Each structure stands twice: as structure tokens, then as C-alpha cells.
Hints:
The complex is a heterodimer of chains A (142) and B (108). By secondary structure, chain A is an alpha+beta fold. Chain A has one domain: Histidine kinase-like ATPase, C-terminal domain (Heat Shock Protein 90, 2-Layer Sandwich). Chain A has helices at 22-33, 38-59, 87-90, 100-103, 112-119, and strands spanning 6-13, 61-68, 72-79, 122-128, 132-140. Chain A has a five-stranded antiparallel sheet with strand order 1-2-3-5-4, covered by helices on one side. Chain A is globular, with a radius of gyration of 14 Å. The two termini of chain A are 19 Å apart. Chain B is an alpha/beta fold and 108 residues long. Chain B has a five-stranded mixed sheet with strand order 1-5-4-3-2. Chain B is globular. The structure holds adenosine-5'-triphosphate (ATP) and magnesium ion. Adenosine-5'-triphosphate binds next to helix 2 and helix 5 of chain A.
Amino acid sequence: xxxxxxxxxxxxxxxxxxxxxxxxxxxxxxxxxxxxxxxxxxxxxxxxxxxxxxxxxxxxxxxxxxxxxxxxxxxxxxxxxxxxxxxxxxxxxxxxxxxxxxxxxxxxxxxxxxxxxxxxxxxxxxxxxxxxxxxxxxxxxx
Amino acid sequence: xxxxxxxxxxxxxxxxxxxxxxxxxxxxxxxxxxxxxxxxxxxxxxxxxxxxxxxxxxxxxxxxxxxxxxxxxxxxxxxxxxxxxxxxxxxxxxxxxxxxxxxxxxxx
Lengths: 142, 108
Ligand SMILES: Nc1ncnc2c1ncn2[C@@H]1O[C@H](COP(=O)(O)OP(=O)(O)OP(=O)(O)O)[C@@H](O)[C@H]1O
Ligand SMILES: [Mg+2]
């Protein structure tokens, strides 16, 4: 992390489902103020939203950190939820363990992780069952 | 065509109008939010029957030109208030998603 890295931190509340996505919307506004290109902001916003919602739905919340460097934006989403037993399976389009209550809100298509992969230049998932999950995503600033 | 023109064309009810002059460049219809996140383009008219609060964040992050609620689906005052505070054009009409999208696609 270089000296001029700009860093944003958010506590993502696992209880408050109605405000889910707030951190991502906030980041979009902050990046706009920093003069980041709209297409980069859009990719960061979408990828972060999917990860943020996953922490709310599947892990009862967590921490979100966004690091803005000259050449890239790094998003780190860390939770102490149940973890992901089979990451390869979870990454498949259509795979979801979301409960019915959540599906009725429009989530649970099993497209969140694939979207995160598609909209970022690099994505790493570290997860341990019973301990939690950390997703690190990088979007390059062209 | 602009959002204002779409309102006229489809006879839409304006729940929140923050930028009526915004051009509509395409369209997408769907109710599963991460499908919309993955597929909707910036500048699209997003037609949906999903009306919970998460719709506002999805609209905000995908940068769609407007959200059009189809088939007159019920929507809460909290959702309309959130759309207003986030500057999201939120409209509603009685037509089906098919009727709305096909009318729009003739003009885009
Ligand atoms: N942070 C997490 N902690 C635990 N499990 C997770 C986490 N993120 C994802 N998962 C698991 O991976 C699955 C796939 O996630 P993905 O985001 O692709 O789909 P979804 O959240 O179920 O539905 P959608 O994102 O389409 O609304 C989830 O159903 C869940 O089982
Ligand atoms: Mg998800």
C-alpha cells in the first residue's frame, strides 16, 4: 500500500437487510468525488454490492474495505460467517443456498459470485468452514 | 428517447423523477437482482415487478436511466423516498413488461 492510498472502511450490518448495499452506494459516491472514470466506478460498485449482499445474506455481516491507488481499486470483504465449503461449486452460475425468504426479495439466483468475477480484473476467495470468508477483488484503473 | 418521453408514451405514473431529460439507450427486464446486476447496461430502462428497497441500490449501481414498475405492482413509500434521495427515476404503469418493452423498442 503506497503512501497516497485512499482507504474507506464500512461495517456491513448483517441484521439490517433493508439498508443492504449502502456501503456500495456510498463507495460509488466517494469514487465519483475522486474523479474515477464512470465505467470503473460501475464495475467496482456492482462487484462490491454483490459481495456486500453476500455478507448480509450468508454471513450475518462483516467488514468492507476499499483501497484506491493510482493504478487500481482493491475491495476487501471479510466476514466471520459459516464459510464456503466448496468454492468451485459456489462460483458456478445458478448455485445458491439462499433461503426462500431471501429469494422472495429477488436474491438467490446464484449469479452474485459470477458477476463479481466478471466485473473485476482479479478475484480471490479465502474461506474456512466455521471461521469465515474473505473476498479480495481488484479493478484496474486503465 | 428521454425518460419524459417514455412517461408520455407508456402513460406512466411518476413516483420519483430526478432527471426527466436522461436519454434511454436500451432496455432490460428482469426481477432477479443479480441477473439485472450482471446484464442491465448503463442508460437502460429497467422494467420489473420487483418493488422492494433493494431495487433502488441495484438501479443506482447499474446506472440505469429509469426503473419502470410493470403491472401496477404495489410499492412502499419507503422505497419511493429512497429513490428520491438517491436521484433514481422511478415510474409505474399498468401494462405488462412485454407491452412496455415492445412499445419502447419501437422508439429506441
Ligand atoms: N460470504 C459468504 N459466506 C458464506 N457463504 C457464501 C458467501 N458468499 C457466497 N456464499 C455461498 O455461495 C453461494 C453462491 O453465491 P452467489 O452470490 O453467487 O449467489 P447467491 O448469493 O446465492 O444469489 P445471488 O447473488 O444471485 O442473489 C451462496 O448461495 C452461498 O452458499
Ligand atoms: Mg449473492
